[in-house]
User: What shape does this take?
Amino acid sequence: MNTPTLSPQTVQALDLNPGDLDLLVIVSHSNLSPTERAVRAHRSLRGVAVPIDVLVKTRAEVERYRHVYASLECQILERSKVLYRREARVGQDLSVSELVLSLLPPQVHS
Assistant: This one.
């Protein structure tokens, strides 16, 4: 079975609670439902010693609500820090887990 991967364009971190990591992962598009994307992202991060909350949205979903002040998308974009942004060029895409693990210190993941 060929399962689609989540290839992030942007990853943003929001510092809501000390001791955990809150991430917004933006993908260009996805045929998966938002729930399926979230489940996949969480499963791919098993073994990470830091609690991580991951929200995976498509670029269109983020753009739809980015200017609606009361929306989660707007709040995250205004208050978060960009950890990763893929340049618009052809190259190797990273999966969500590869990307997040590359951003964490080695002692945090097994």
Summary: The longest helix spans residues 34-44. Residues 8-86 form a domain with the Beta Polymerase; domain 2 fold (CATH 3.30.460). The chain has four helices and four strands.
